[in-house]
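Researcher: For the record, we're logging two predictions in this thread. I'll number them. Prediction 1 follows.
Model: Prediction 1, sequence and structure:
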Amino acid sequence: MAERLATSTPIAFFSSSDTIADRSLRKTVISINTFSSAPSTPCSSLKSSSLLCRPPLRTITSTRRRLSCSSSSSGVSAVTFSSSDPMQLKSARDDIKKLLDSTFCHPILVRLGWHDAGTYDKNVEEWPKRGGANGSLRFEIELKHAANAGLVNALKLIQPIKEKYPRITYADLFQLASATAIEDAGGPKIPMRYGRVDVSESEQCPDEGRLPDAGPPSPADHLRDVFYRMGLGDKEIVALSGAHTLGRSRPERSGWGKSETKYTQNGPGAPGGQSWTAQWLKFDNSYFTDIKEKKDGDLLVLPTDAVIFDDPSFKAFAEKYAEDQDVFFKDYAKAHALLSDVGAKFDPPEGFSLDNEPPQSPTPEKFVASKYSTGKSGLSEDMKRKIRAEYQAIGGSPNKPLSSNYFLNIIIFIAVLVVLTYFLGN
C-alpha cells in the first residue's frame, strides 16, 4: 500500500475531484488563517478554530424551531437554531444545483457528506461522541485527518451557500449537497430527511481512523470492520461502493492513481487524476461492469474495489448490480439515506422531508350529480348510502338512475298548473 507522510493512506469514500472549483477558490476569502486569527468572530473563543464558522443568525419567530442562547466572547447573547429551516434548505438545494452546473463538483460534494457521516460508531450511545452527520467536518482539526485531504475545497465551495441561508445547519447542508449531487448526476432519488443538529466546538470532533483505507492487508475484513461498526451490512457496503462511478483519485492527495488518463486529461474541470469509470460525472452502474470486465488499464481499481468481486458475499450483490442498474439504484438510495441518518441527532426527532407535498383534499362529491349518474361504482360508500336512502324513501332502486324522479317532477308540475288554473279561473 502506498505510503504518504510515513503513514498508511486512508482512502476517501469518494475521490477528491477538485474540478474547475480550484480556479474559483482563489476568489474565496475563506482560509484557515483567516478564521483562526479573526478576533471578532464568535469562533475565536474556541480552543481550536473552525475553518468555516457559521455567521451570526437572525432572530425569527418559528413554532417549529427551538432556539437556544449561547454567549459569545464579547458577552453578547447570540441566538442560534438547533436545526434547519425547511424553506431555506429548499432554496439552498436550488443554489447547489447551480453550483454543480457551473463547477462539476459532484464527486467532492458527495465525499463531503459521506465523510461527515461515516464516522458513526453504533457502540457509542452518547451524541456527539458516537459520530455521524453532525457538521464536525467544518473544523480544522478534522479536516487535517488524512482521509479528508482536499475537502477544504468542498467547504470553500459550499460556504457561500451557508452564509446566504444562515438558518440551516452544516450537518444538513453537507448531506443535502451530497444527495443533490448524486441525483443531479443521473442517480436515484434519495429518500432524505433533515433536521440534523450541529456540534458546536472542535472538541466534539471524532477521533481519526474511522474511515476506510484504500489498501489494507485484508480488504474484505477491513470494509466489514468499518461498515459493521456503523450498523451497515454487506449489501450496503457493495451498494455504497458503487458511488465510485463518480470522481477521480489524485495521487498527490491519496497516494493512489495516475496523474492523468485519457478520461481525465482534458477535464471537465481541472484536468488530472484517475477515474474509476470512463464517464466519471455520470451516476450509473458502470463501476460494477468495469471492474467485472477488467479491460481498461486507464480505469482505477483499488484493493477495496476489487474485493467486491472476490469475496463471495460481496460478489452476489456486485453481480446483481452489474446486470441490473435499477436494482443498484434502489439499493443505493436506501443505503445512502441510511448512512446519512445513523448517529445524527434530529430536531424534531423524526426529522422532516423537503419533498412531502401537503395532502390534497378530495374533491367533494356532488350529491345531485352522483344521484343521477349511471356510473355509481366509483362513488364513496358514504355517497352510496345517501343515494340509497333517498331512493328507498320513494320506492326506487339505488342501482339505476333515479328515473322515477323524472315522473314525480312531471306530476308535481301538473299539480301546480291545476292549482294555478283553479285560482286564476276564480
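Researcher: Logged. Prediction 2.
Model: Prediction 2, sequence and structure:
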Amino acid sequence: MLPAFCLRSALLQRWRILGISGVRAAHSHEGQVSHPDGSELLYFDHRSFPLPDLPFQKKLSSQQATLKEKERGPWKDLTQEDKISLYRIKFNKTYAEMNQPTNEWKTVIGSVLIFIGLTGLIVWWQRVYGEYVLTQPDHLSHFPSKYLLSSIQFTHPSHIP
C-alpha cells in the first residue's frame, strides 16, 4: 500500500484540487486562462509512479530526434550513451536519484534548535528583569501630573499649588 503522502501529493498535483490556479480560472473574467486545469497531462516523476503520463522532454532537438529514429531499429546497434540519453528524454531522474535522501532533516533540526534558543532567551530575560514594576504609587496614577496640568493651563509648573 502506498503512503498517504505519496497518493495525496500525486493527486493534488495532477488534479489541481487545492490550488490558486483552479480558483483563479473559475473566477476569472478575462476569458481563457492558460493554467492547466487538470485535464492536461502533467509530468510527475516519483518512485511510486514509475511511468509518468508524459515524457520529460516534450520538444526534442535534432540530435534527440535522430536518436529516437535510431531507437526504432535494433537495440544492439545503440551504444550505452545512446541508451542513457534515450532514458533522459523519457525520464528526469533515475530510481537511484529519486531514492537519494534529502537534507531536509537539517532544516527541521536547525529550525527547532533556533526556536528552543529563542524561547530560552525569553525565559532568561524574564528571570533577570522580572515583571514590570510601576515607579509611581497607585494613589497618584489616577491623577494627571503637574506637567500635564501646566500645559493645559499654559502656566509654569511652579505656579500650580
